[in-house]
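Worked example 3 (structure in, sequence out).
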C-alpha cells in the first residue's frame, strides 16, 4: 500500500484513538497519564496499556504500537522489600510482564498505520482488549493468581523465561525465605545448565535474510559476525554468562546461598 507523502498528523490521530479507548476502560478503574492508561490491583500491582506513537528517531513515523504490561514491584525491582511510597502510575517499560497488543492477539508484532481512520483503529483496539487482554488482566490481578496462572498466557508474557526468578521474589516479599531460596536456586541451576550447553553445543538464534549479528564466540574468544544469507536459525557459541554473574550478585544481596550448585 502506498504511503501518502503528505504529513501525517500522528499526534492528533493518537489523541483520538487514546481518548476513545480511555473512555472504554475508565469505568474499569484505569486512569490516564499521558500516553499511559494505568490501574492498580491488589494495592500495588500495576496493569498498563501504553500507546507508542512510532519511533521517529529511527525513521519509523506514522505507526502505533499498543504496549501492555503488568508490574509486580518486587519482581521489577528484584528486592524482597520494594521501594515506597508508590508512584501515581508506572510505565509499560517498568513492568516485568510485557507484550504488545498485536503479539498477544496474533502472535506477531504488527503496528497500526496511523494514516487509517483513527475511529476504526480505536474500535479494533477495544475489540482486542475485550477479547484477549482484559480477561487476562482480570485473572492476573493478584500475586496468588500470577504464581498460579502466569504460564497459561505465554503470548502475554514475552519475559516468561524469568518465571522462576520472579516467583522467588514474590515468595520473598511474603516472608517465606525457604521457598524463595529454593526457587532462586532452581533458576540459577537452570541458567547454569543453559550456559554449559551453549558453550558445548551452541544455541540457535533466528535471523531474517540480510540480518547480521556480531557476538563474542566464547569457544574461540574472538568476535564473530553472522550474516544471514537466508531467513532461518543459525548456531552461535555465546552463553548467558553476564546473566549468571548478575544472579550471583543478586543472590549475595538477598543472602541466598548458591553452594553445591
Amino acid at each position: 500500500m502506498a504511503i501518502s507523502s503528505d504529513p501525517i498528523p500522528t499526534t492528533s490521530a493518537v489523541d483520538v484513538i487514546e481518548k476513545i479507548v480511555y473512555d472504554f476502560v475508565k469505568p474499569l478503574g484505569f486512569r490516564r497519564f499521558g500516553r499511559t492508561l494505568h490501574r492498580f490491583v491488589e494495592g500495588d500491582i500495576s496493569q498498563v496499556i501504553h500507546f507508542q506513537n512510532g519511533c521517529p528517531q529511527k525513521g519509523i513515523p506514522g505507526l502505533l504500537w499498543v504496549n501492555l504490561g503488568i508490574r509486580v514491584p518486587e519482581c521489577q525491582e528484584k528486592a524482597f522489600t520494594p521501594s515506597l511510597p508508590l508512584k501515581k502510575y508506572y510505565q509499560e517499560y517498568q513492568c516485568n510482564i510485557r507484550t504488545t497488543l498485536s503479539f498477544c492477539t496474533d502472535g506477531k508484532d504488527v503496528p497500526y498505520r496511523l494514516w487509517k481512520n483513527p475511529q476504526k483503529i480505536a474500535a479494533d483496539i477495544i475489540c482486542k482488549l475485550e477479547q484477549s487482554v482484559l480477561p487476562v488482566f482480570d485473572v492476573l490481578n493478584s500475586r496468588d493468581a500470577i504464581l498460579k496462572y502466569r504460564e497459561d498466557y505465554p503470548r502475554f508474557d514475552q519475559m516468561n523465561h524469568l518465571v522462576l526468578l520472579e516467583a522467588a521474589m514474590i515468595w520473598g516479599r511474603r516472608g517465606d525465605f525457604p521457598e524463595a531460596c529454593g526457587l532462586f536456586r532452581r533458576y540459577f541451576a537452570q541458567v547454569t545448565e543453559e550456559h554449559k550447553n551453549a558453550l558445548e553445543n551452541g544455541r540457535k538464534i533466528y535471523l531474517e535474510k540480510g540480518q547480521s549479528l556480531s557476538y563474542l564466540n566464547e569457544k574461540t574468544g574472538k568476535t564473530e559476525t553472522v550474516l544471514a544469507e537466508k531467513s532461518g536459525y543459525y548456531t552461535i557459541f555465546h552463553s548467558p554468562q553476564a546473566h549468571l554473574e548478575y544472579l550471583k550478585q543478586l543472590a549475595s544481596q538477598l543472602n541466598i546461598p548458591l553452594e553445591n550448585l
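Notes: DSSP finds eight helices and ten strands in the chain. Confidence is low (pLDDT under 50) at residues 1-7.
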